[in-house]
Amino acid sequence: MGEVQFGETLSAQSKKKKKSASKKRSSSNKKKSSKKRSSSKKKRSSKKKKSSSKKQKATKPESTKPLPIVNKGPQINVAAYADELYQLSSELEASNKEMAKATRYIYNEKPKKKLGNIESLPFLSTGDYETDSRNNPNNIYIQRQLGLHYENVSNWEGAKDVYLRQIKKHPANPDAHFYLGSFYAQLGEYEKARQSFEEALELNPDHKGTIDAMAMYTNSPDQKTLSEQILGMSSKRAPDGPAQKLTTIRQRLVEGNYKDALRLCEEGQKNFPSHNGFLQLTGETQLAMGNVEAAKSAFQRSIKLNAKDKSSHSSLANLYFDLGKYVYAALSFSDVIYLDPDDSDSRYMQGLSYFKAKEWGRAAAAWEDLLHYKPDNEVVRVLLPQTYYILAIEYNRLGNPSMGKQSFKNALSVNPNSNQWLASSMSTLGGYYRDKRMYRESLAAYQEVIELAPSDAEAYLGIGLTYWNMDEKDLAISSWQKSLLIKPENNESQGWLILSKQES
User: Between 220 and 156, whose confidence is greater?
Assistant: First the structure.
């Protein structure tokens, strides 16, 4: 009995313990739930308070006190980037969207398209030419390219070695002697040049390269003398050959007897149709007579007959440039460069043609390539920064400030002395914007020129032209008068003032 009572008491005690534990858990759960409910009630009440406070604020009447009028200063124009290193303000970035509408002329297909990066055209280094020469030791024409490259970089001894090696390897090839003669002529050593040209003509009295080159040697008295000697030699060896005709035509041109020169050119073309030198001289004769279209046609036919003749491409390019057809001039100069990549003068003219055509990116690419060949070209180091600066302004105007900053950095990397090119850049921009009838931007650009160079007569001339196009005659006349006060002589403003009086 005692054992049973002991077991019962234990079970009873355990039941009591379980009940008390369950009561504790239930009480704790009730406390937690009550806390959660109270916290949620507090949150809802706080939200109600906030919403009610918002409603109260919304219902408050607005102040009828007028806002103070803020007088804005003059807007920062594009030239200010030069002083601030293109730290663009938010105001300019916001206005770019509106100003982009005025730049549709730049893009024909997609007006909103951004300008791309300016990349220079590929160029060959000295190592490239030397590698090509080693890989083709018996190719006289590849060796010639190496010699021309050495000439361009003023490695005269290297060029001479190339040409002398070719004469040893190809003594019966008149081209080898012609190359050496051309090299000596470029150095001004005309006696040595004459000996080499004579060797070429002894091998071939009608050697086309020598005869055509002599037809173009007219730049100096020494060249003319050399040309007469070589053409005279060819005439004696081949009395009925092309040299005699070319010599006579040259004499007629010097005499100013253009009709006879033209007649002889036509006879030469008929008798020697493979010699484009007659077509070249035909073009020169027609140009001297003022027949520009006929001259252009002759140069084009000369190129068609011999596309490798550099002189005809050069003549056509200069003709286009003189006519103001700058894009066509640039394309023709590119043909010259294709034939002679080391022709730095043609590279300069190609860039200048694109610059005058307002093809800023292409001008920059052409002049960047030129600096690889002639890094000390002082003219390009003034013109190329102008091109980059104009590109910077255009990039910013189109809403591309990052490219604007990069272009400005490019300008400074070419020439950090902005005093040499900044005013000219703004003057060019003034004319560029005027042509696009963006008169406000044109006036702003010219105003920057005056701030940089107060005595710049050309800036006042430009302002006058812009006002004239705006039909602001009085303002135009006033600007031209200021220009004449600064520069009384050789000033186009005088002619515009006379015109303004005639129209008044």
Answer: 156
